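Note to self: user wants both folds in one dump. Writing first protein now.
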Amino acid sequence: MRRPARLTALAPLLALALVAGCSPTSTAGTSTESPGPTSSTSSTSSAETETVATTVADATGDVAADHDEASDYEWDTSAEVAVSLDGDTASSDSAAVVVDGSTVTITASGAYRLSGELTDGQVVVDSADDGVVRLVFDGVDIASSTSAPVVITDAGKAMIVLAEGSTNSVSDADTYVYPDSATDEPDGAIFSTADLTITGTGALTVDANAGDGIVSKDGLVISGGDLTVTATDDAVRGKDYVVVKDSELSSPTITATAGGDGLKSTNVDDTTLGYVSVSGGTLDLTTDGDGIQAETHAIVSGGTLSIVAAGGSTGTVLADVSSKGIKGTASVRVSGGTVDVDSADDALHSDGQVTVSGGALTLASGDDGVHADGALTVSAGTVVVRASYEGLEAASITLSGGDLDVTATDDGINVSGGTDSSGTGGPGGMGGGGGMGGEETFTADAETFLLVSGGTLTVDAGGDGLDSNGSISITGGTTTVDGPTDGGNGAIDANSGVEVSGGVLVAAGSAGMAVSPAASSPQASTMVVFDAAQPAGTTVSLVAEDGTVVASYTPTKSFQTVVFSTPDLVAGATYTITSGGTVSGDEVDGLVLGGTLSGSTDAGSVTA
């Protein structure tokens, strides 16, 4: 974001310190953590809607391929069996369709085109053979006052194909009637014990009044259709996986309102299953629970996602309710797509790892923007945390690329050992205090660290800007921090010290707990300390003897200290500190590197 430079006055300096870099270069844990690649592939072929099996993998673990095959979408439409629904009964010429009152049972594989209305009945698939049962919904309205309107009890595979131009609906009972106390299934308006695919180009509305909306006890793939699901509990649930992806002729749209979770997988017994994968489509999820919840991996490689959990970042997290945006117990992986999350709890959360290697993410949270109990890595993409208590929190954080813009009421970046102890509005992780103008030594921490080696990082924090219970190492990229205005926090805070060996670091904040990079840093740095807090919008510039502007920064909040470190700082050279004036040059988030300066006021000088 670019802003015009501002002309303001600067109060006299209380102290100026320039720390010259020295060698050799320390790696600060760079050999122990690096962002792993994330990959996902999908392919399509022609049919009414077609997809093929997909295997998604990255450094945090593989997941099994889904059940979808191109052959599933190939059938002779002229051989379809017509099934006419008519109020409290139905009719068909096929012996494979058994009608008993208002219950329609399909007993063999094949394609069945359903149309009409069942006012209080049920469509059942009970096929003993291993073939695919295709239910082509072509203008159906199925309701049940006692159970689920669509139940698949046995099939090799099952498909619900939404015919082009059709509008379809299913609605279940408020309370299910089971034959005995030991029976608790079906438990969703559309319920399948077999692998289930929903595809096509038509529309489907699911009203789940008793519990879940669409349920598969095996895998669930949604590759087409315009789905609207309203559920008392979870909207879309698959045991082994939930996969949402585009086909060659269709891109699915899912609009879900859920009293529980939006998309959910539940397999805890197989580490290659229990995942949710979104590679295409458009999802609009409004939930009381998690937007997406995966027992293993939550994977986003494409599509457009909008998630509001528990009323958003200003909502309330209820006791014993998880209200996170996207949650994967083993990992959350984002490599593409557009993701917009507004959640009462963490926007992205994993008990394991979070990796971002692409995509455009806009996150708002009442707690952490992104939280990982283990490692958090960002190597590409755009991440905007527009509201949070703590922006990014993990046991270790590696930022090697991408554009990050983090806003937090407490710590912007918090490396705290990873446990989710902050809670909504709770205390943040403890960092090391250096005192005003503190210059700490540096000890690389191989397990608890912040490593910035590339990309752009912008932080606006009410607490510590960059906070690590271990070490902070900056080897590349551009990092700008608008830190705290109170003296109890600092723009930079690290128990094991801060080392800068490359890149650009500019951090403005209060003076009470201000910390500068260690004297052993290979790259030189300055800390400018003022005798009083300066107003927001005060431009501070660092100018070389030949008039070259090394850097200019205009904080958006009041501040008393500014740390500068750039590759252009030269040990032994003398620099002038100026205030105000007009800076011409490329400005990104208040920072101008190089450029020209006019109309400023000298406020002191410093020599490396």
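First done. Writing the second protein, which came from a different request thread.
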Amino acid sequence: MKSLFAAALLTTAALVVPAIAQTPAAAPVAAPQGKPKLIVAISVDQFSADLFAQYRNRYTDGLARLQQGAVFPSGYQSHAATETCPGHSTILTGMRPAHTGIIANNWIDQRAGRSDKTVYCAEDERAPGSDHDKYQPSDLHLRVDTLGDMMKRADPRTRVVAVAGKDRAAIMMGGHHTDQMWFWATDHFVTLPSRSTAPVPAVVTRANEAVGKLLAGAQAPLPLPGYCKGLAQPIAVGGQTIGTGQFQRAGGDAKSFRASPALDGAVFALAAGLIQDMKLGQGAGTDLIAVGASATDYVGHALGTQGSEMCIQMAQLDQTIGAFLAQLDEWGLDYEVMLTADHGAHDMTERQQQRAMPMEEHAAASNAAKLVGAAIGRDLGIAGPVLIGPESDVYIADSVPAARRKQVLAEAKRRYLAMPQVAAAFTRDEIAATPFAKTPPETWTLMERARASYDPERSGDLMVLLKPRVTTIVTPAPFYVETHGSPWDYDRRVPILFWRKGMVAFEQPLSVETVDIAPTLAATIGLPVSGLDGRCLDLDAGAGDSCPR
């Protein structure tokens, strides 16, 4: 099977990277020695360790190649708030959300100088006329450096590029000093508003034109691999029937394009174009490109993880990555690859209930902070709002009198703990008093997982964690039938893979963390780093050690 990337984008190279057709391929490199010339850091959004395990013996191309390197199948996004923005903030910083400042996709800042107090993790809320839905993308809230920032500080000749299907993926992996940053927005790639006056590189224009043609045309059903046929079972959820789809869509349907393998194809096509256009990996030092493959997450949210759709997505992703790596080989580049995910997930409630998990359930609407706060306000005689907050972080409204805040917090905790779907409710003081865990991540208590997500300026007054197999989705709807974000291991566990030509393959089944990735990559290029939450992982399969001692 050919992926959309290989069949429709890479083979029409004149639209995206025309230099491919005219530039003779460099002589293939032997197994490289010393520092790689290019680091390729790939995040596959919502690529859980369970999904990797389910399909790893089906991969035949790019993901099969990466399994011939150092495989850590039990990586952890070890914090509690397993969302896209926090997860991406750990991958190339070596720091947990408690230190990156990225505690969630959204949080409440009651001091924000606008009526909308919900802040998106990758925005600049100071922008006039903005709100958390119509925002100005920015790296403002990322409090630490990424590996690319560290590399550029050590060697200004380093080029750092980020390309992703989501702005928060590109921003959190690329960091503060990228040379180029592009991410998908509705129907084309855009960059940060702060760079909007800079000329758009021709390769980006060509990529947008090529992808625009794909998007404008209808998409016929993609091939269904034989091993996917047993998963093609219809299921009714959210007013629709899904589970047997093959990504057919009408021309111009941008939302369906985004929740399909085509989005990853577009992202990797642009990444290849920028590598060629900027001659990444051909300079005096080492360059870095961060690639955020976001389609798996959009497919998971829209269609779940256990139907024909995700099976096809896994096959297409494997082919897309394979075509991308084959292109780097053709150019003769000396590169190393790291692939991981920002979080995991598990399948939608309705299909889980049919498949031996009847205890799966949707969160009750009564769990919402607004409703709990309203009840507290009535009982204690406090005018509302009393509690506000998205997801697990619950904030006491600033309008609550200072003398009543302690009482409100105690009552909120009591009420949440009495709810049958709630596993824990921790106050900010309880979390802040908890030391950071130093044991393997699968052994952490819920409090320790909460500590890794806690920031004193941004976190709520109370962190509420639901029990296992309770999804935060109250009512499923089209494009939103499954989610993640819990402190449980199905959302925390992700694969971590490292590959470089000539590397001796090995697998380490014991747990590691995504914060270990940055110091590990830094060691491969001889870049000293310190003060990180993560540790260097030894990528030498033998008696040697790739980490500094």
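Dump finished. Worth passing along: The chain is about 35% helix and 15% strand.
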